[in-house]
Amino acid sequence: MNLWRRMITGVLCLIFLFSLFTPVHAKADDSETAYVDVAVATLWVEPGITRSIDSPSLSNPVDLWTWTKSMSYEEKLWLVGNLETQALYGTKVTILEKQGDWVKVAVHGQPTPRHSLGYPGWMPIHQLTKGTAFSQFQSKPFAQIIKPTAWLYHDPNSRKRFMEISFATRLPVISTTKHAVKVMTPSDGAKWLKREDVQIFRTEADIPTPTGEDVVRTAKQFLGLPYLWAGTSGFGFDCSGFTHTIYKAHGITIPRDSSVQAQFGLPVSEKDLQPGDLLFFAYDQGKGRVHHVGMYIGNGKMIHSPNSSSTVRIDDYRAPGYGEEFAGARRYIQR
């Protein structure tokens, strides 16, 4: 029954998505795959357009907190239109093009009409690994991070830190103890996570079907987190990266962008809104292109990641600035 509900929500959505949109790229050879080898990889619209202030996001390892906290509002605003999306540690990508030290990839698990394999964008090649050993663990149970961020450790006693990784990151499980989980990393062998920071699942289909209250509770963990254009991690979200990642953590894959999220799921009238439903906002008094998404939490309010000057917060979805642009709601959870 759990599997059937997932087919109605996430899987059915993807079937519709790929049947209605024709990808603009030819499918790449699946042998050109790799895995993200940094905590969060940031994908750009073009190679070589980065600024010196972006260096912490381009290295291996990355330093996302230094990057996001060092930028002024104007410097953050510059990212709008120059970034595509982000990909979490261990995510599989397909390499589409190469240009010097940069590669264009499609991020698996981020549905979009722009490419059949996943969301496309450019990233430094040194942030990827072929992950030959890592790939052999993909059929193992996985540990999924449930905190906004969590540390990987060199030892089971959590004494020597290795890397801070994001919410919703999934890594194959090698073994467990009462207080720690031993996982495989893309290129650095086995590391350890605190047991309290993860949930372990045999497959994605084994993630329990959430209630609306479940996804709202998860979303509220991020209240106060600064907005980041193209962000999909506990280091910073944009509006649709927020809803996409929250749902993904609950085993439901929805499109990456708000304009596409607004086309799938089940349409919901305002009088029937329930917690966890997605609310959409569009230009031209709600009749134009969808440009924003929030998650309904009840009592006329939504949680969302609004813009580069703000943080994840709760607002009245009918308040001035939102109400006049309301364009409808969609439900991705089977009630």
Automatic annotation (TrEMBL):
Residues 209-333 form the NlpC/P60 domain. It comes from the Bacteria. One of its GO terms (biological process) is proteolysis. It holds the Pfam family SH3_YKFC_2nd. Belongs to the peptidase C40 family. SUPFAM superfamilies: Cysteine proteinases (SSF54001). InterPro entries: NLP_P60_dom (IPR000064), Papain-like_cys_pep_sf (IPR038765), Peptidase_C40 (IPR051202), SH3_YKFC_2nd (IPR057812). It comes from Geobacillus thermodenitrificans (strain NG80-2). The keyword Protease applies. This is Polysugar degrading enzyme (Alpha-amylase). One of its GO terms (molecular function) is cysteine-type peptidase activity. Residues 1-26 form the signal peptide. Keywords: Hydrolase, Protease, Signal, Thiol protease.
